[in-house]
Write a structure and sequence with these properties.
- There is one protein chain.
- With 254 residues, the protein is an alpha+beta fold.
- It has six helices and 14 strands.
- The strands form four sheets. It has a five-stranded mixed sheet with strand order 2-9-8-4-6, with no helix packed on it.
């Protein structure tokens, strides 16, 4: 590049054409069926001269929001619409680039995968099936609850279940929404938190001393607790607890 600048300063004009390099040279990706997917590729200069042009897709389901580019390193973003694809179906085509370095193409294959979400949803025939899944794997239950096709689960044909779901989805506390959903549909009893000691009394103490407060959790399920104290002389070892902190239904708070 420095040599080229020096040549221009001396009045020597290059007639060299830019060299277009695509990275990657082809695309072969698996996408989730029924979900919009985004990706990118790069248009690079192989000899330090600016590459500019336009890019098109041969398949209408693969769109490019901004199809113009220019520079030594350009990023091209594409979107794949897999809404109507079934498990295993493919979208095959290519990106056609018309550039000042000539016409180049980038072939692509996008393969739809229904994934674990769709397969598991089809097995949830009764509310108790979802409750069993949540008890065994709450993280998976939360992902399914957020899945856009959650209402395709057989047990979600019930209008009451759909109404409860619509009222709870989209909140910040995702696991809490799943817990409320299961309780509202009577899949499980609500979690109960108990502290049996109503009062703790101490004699005269000088300096710092420790004690514990046993918090008990009844029934399985997600819970999130916030712990506060009234009095600057009191300090707790934790300010927040979830169901994962309880062992055999108990947690000893220092």
């Amino acid at each position: 590049m420095r040599e080229r600048i020096n040549r221009l300063a001396r009045g020597i004009v290059d007639t060299e054409s830019p060299e277009c390099v695509l990275k990657p040279a082809s695309l072969d990706e698996t996408i989730h069926a029924g979900e919009a997917a985004r990706g990118e590729f790069f248009v690079l200069s192989g000899n330090g001269l600016m590459v500019k042009g336009l890019v098109y897709s041969t398949d209408g389901r693969v769109r490019i929001p901004d199809n113009s580019f220019g520079g030594l390193r350009s990023r091209v973003v594409y979107e794949v619409d897999s809404e109507n694809l079934q498990d295993g179906e493919e979208i095959r085509g290519e990106f056609c680039l018309v550039t000042n370095a000539g016409e180049v193409s980038l072939p692509y294959v996008f393969r739809a995968d229904a994934g674990v979400s769709a397969r598991v949803l089809s097995e949830l025939r009764r509310p108790v099936d979802f409750a069993r899944l949540a008890r065994e794997n709450m993280e998976l239950a939360v992902r399914l609850f957020e899945y856009q096709d959650f209402c395709s689960a057989p047990f979600m044909r019930d209008l009451h279940a759909r109404a409860v779901y619509e009222g709870l989805k989209g909140g910040r506390d995702r696991a809490g929404a799943v817990e409320e959903f299961m309780v509202a549909l009577k899949m499980k009893p609500p979690v109960e938190i108990q502290v049996r000691e109503e009062t703790k009394s101490y004699g005269e103490h000088i300096g710092i001393f420790d004690d514990t407060l046993v918090i008990r959790k009844k029934n399985w399920g997600y819970v999130k607790l916030s712990i506060e104290t009234e009095g600057d002389f009191l300090e707790t070892s934790r300010e927040r607890l979830t169901d994962r902190d309880f062992k055999n239904g108990e947690y000893a708070l220092s």
